[in-house]
Amino acid sequence: MVVQTETVADGVLLVRLNRPDARNALNMELRTRLAEVFLALADDPAVRCVVVTGSPKVFAAGADIKEMAESGAIEMMGRRILRLWKPLADCPKPVIAAVNGVALGGGCELAMHADIIVAGEGARFGQPEVKVGIMPGGGATQRLVRAVGVYRAMRMMLTGEPVTAAEALSMGLVSEVVADDTVLDRALEMARAIAAMPPLAVQQIKETVYAGLDGSLAGGLLLERKAFEILFASADQKEGMRAFIEKRSPTFEGK
Ligand code: CAA
């Protein structure tokens, strides 16, 4: 299977890219499977947090160049690739990317579909598409610019040169950098902690942040106010606050 899934802890689904011979290049088979996995997990109440990872050597080398080298524009259009990115972009559950090795092109864009990125010290992030005569097509011209600003994003996209994990951290492209052999453990530790949080609050935070990024400050703040108020209709809000007052651990059920 080019994408493997495994429930590794209560509420935590691990999604692993598995095309080692092609450095996890995103061919249509892998993209289709990844989209199917994300569509399914969106509706699965047992999944509270997702970790996406590659192998210890490579996260993903981007779109499969061999699969598109001889393609024409109409054929590329016919792939309707956005339909395969959409389940990841619209995922209502929190997603953590655990990145070892290179995350290039579509691989970097895949990482940027996550809400949190944990990178190993040896990781490299880059948008090298320009070197093969194309441009980013999985969202980097928008998401990378929003994450790191115009000038750093432009340098990455126009030169195609990757940045180190340390540089990515300083630019705001990753959340945390850890030793290479602890990346997955750290991502899973975080995922377990998030999976134990009240799911409705987690979902509202994610939805409000991304909706706000695309709108005005006033609109975003209004949305936040409404989402904040709606959470007071949840049993988890009562449980969380009562547990705090009663000095015990809360149990959240997503209600
Ligand atoms: N597509 C297809 N095959 C790829 C690939 C890719 N993106 N990246 C690596 N491979 C294949 C190689 O062709 C090679 O196959 P063979 O064994 O059949 O020759 C195999 O994976 C191993 O590759 P390397 O020998 O190059 O391995 P390496 O460890 O020395 O280097 C690498 C790894 C740095 C990732 C290097 O392979 C590389 O630079 N790959 C291309 C990266 C790239 O340009 N990505 C952008 C793609 S375009 C894109 O992503 C567009 C978009 O967003 C929509």
TrEMBL record:
Superkingdom of source: Bacteria
Keywords for this protein: Lyase
InterPro entries: ClpP/crotonase-like_dom_sf, Enoyl-CoA_hyd/isom_CS, Enoyl-CoA_hydra/iso, Enoyl-CoA_hydra_C
Keyword Cytoplasm on entry: no
One Pfam family, short name: ECH_1
Family: Belongs to the enoyl-CoA hydratase/isomerase family.
Listed NCBIfam families: PRK08138.1
Name this polypeptide is given: Enoyl-CoA hydratase
Source species: Azospirillum oleiclasticum
Lineage per the UniProt record: Bacteria, Pseudomonadati, Pseudomonadota, Alphaproteobacteria, Rhodospirillales
